Amino acid sequence: MENEQDSYMTEETLIETVENQIADGEPKKVKETLMRLVMTGTPREEAIQWMACALAIEVSDVMLNGASFNEQRYNLHLDALPNLDWMED
Question: Which is nearest to 44 in space by CA: 35, 53, 56?
Fold first, then answer.
């Protein structure tokens, strides 16, 4: 299980997933968040990395706890960006 989790949790995989979400327009909040962050001066690459952190929380919960992906919580974390204090929890 740990090796499987590690393959899902690589930075490259998470960033690729965020990029795919942006391209697909789903969830809608992902593209909105990228636009908001870039419009407020965050470099695109940095914004994508932050968004990948929010995604990592959901992937971790699914892998560790057998939970379903929680889009509402993912959206809340995206809304909180660029504040990453929630990652300390």
Answer: 35
pTM confidence score: 0.84
Is 9 a residue whose pLDDT tops 80? no
| Angle made by CA atoms 27, 43, 17, in degrees to the nearest 5 | 30
Contact 83, 37 (CB under 8 A): no
pLDDT tens, position by position, 18-65: 999 999 999 999 999 999 999 999 999 999 999 999 999 888 888 889
CA atoms of 21 and 75, how far apart (whole Å): 13
Tell me the residue ranges of DSSP E strands in the chain.
Answer: none
What single letter denotes the amino acid at residue 73?
R
